[in-house]
Amino acid sequence: MTSLTLLSPAKLNLFLHITGRRADGYHQLQTLFQLLDYGDEMTFSTRSDGQITLSPDLPGVAFEQNLIIKAVRKLEAYKTADAGVDIQLHKRLPMGGGIGGGSSNAATTLVALNHLWNCGLTRNQLQTIGLQLGADVPVFINAQTAWAEGVGEALEPIKMQPKWFLVVQPDCHVSTTEIFLHKDLTRDTSAIKVAAFLERGGKNDCEALVRRLYPQVDKALNWLQKFDRNARMTGTGACVFASFESAEKAQQVQALLPSDLPGFVAQGVNQSPLYKLLPPN
């Protein structure tokens, strides 16, 4: 049996502009995906009987609907008949939090099984497969902080200055589908260049709507903005974040969090350790 343990990192959307809507219903957007040095831990152990297992079960998520299993199914066409896998998930990232938990898990699964099953797929091929599972999956396969356009799949790696982030999790689960289908969502923000964002920053076009629909998110942001006026929501929520120049400052604010607002401190990284952790084939 061959075993492999990998970090499945979180991401933040440092901004999220929705610039249009395609005929197929997908949204055109611009965002900057900032990878973090914090996430879920996943262990993959190969089997020789073709069986696929995942533990523990995620409450409310059917086995075949789990993005991890959907990723496994995508690679089954490239494996030998008797290749199976046991997957153990140590979950740290909240579901419905806007920090990429499920998408990151799917990406890590594709990369791990491509290696363990000797599928021979390139990183670009894995990204193409990953896009079928979700718009955020390719950035985790690419494993680099990146400027993104299109539906999130057109990626340009970008090096950001070191920052530490306090990520706060309001007690609610925000449905990405609900937000993207909502009639009040802003969908006509003008496109900007990377230089413009780095100079002036950006906003999250989903934030105002989510704050109105989910008072828990509004409450968390009101609290966090006392320490960082640029604190904002990531993705379609529910998590919100503030940035700091040092881990110590972020941890000082974390220590002040109300008891009903869990959070974690993580450093932004320009490259996740995903491929560095893969042993040679």
How would you describe this structure to a colleague?
The protein is of the alpha+beta class. It has two domains: 3-157, 2-Layer Sandwich (Ribosomal Protein S5, domain 2); 164-269, GHMP kinase, C-terminal domain (Alpha-Beta Plaits), CATH 3.30.70. The protein has nine helices and ten strands. Strands 1, 2, 3, 4, 5, 6, 7, 8, 9 and 10 form a ten-stranded mixed β-sheet that branches.
What's the topology here?
Layout (H helix, E strand, L loop, with lengths): L2 E19 L5 E21 L4 E4 L11 H9 L8 E7 L10 H16 L6 H9 L5 H6 L3 E4 L4 E4 L6 E5 L7 H6 L12 H7 L6 H7 L1 H10 L7 E2 L6 E5 L2 H8 L8 E7 L12
Parallel strand pairs: 3-4
Antiparallel strand pairs: 1-2, 2-4, 2-5, 2-10, 5-6, 7-9, 7-10, 8-9
Under CATH, the topology of the largest domain can be stated as: Ribosomal Protein S5, domain 2
Helix content: 25-40%
Overall geometry: globular
**Number of E-state strands:** 10
Count, helices: 9
End-to-end CA span = 15 Å
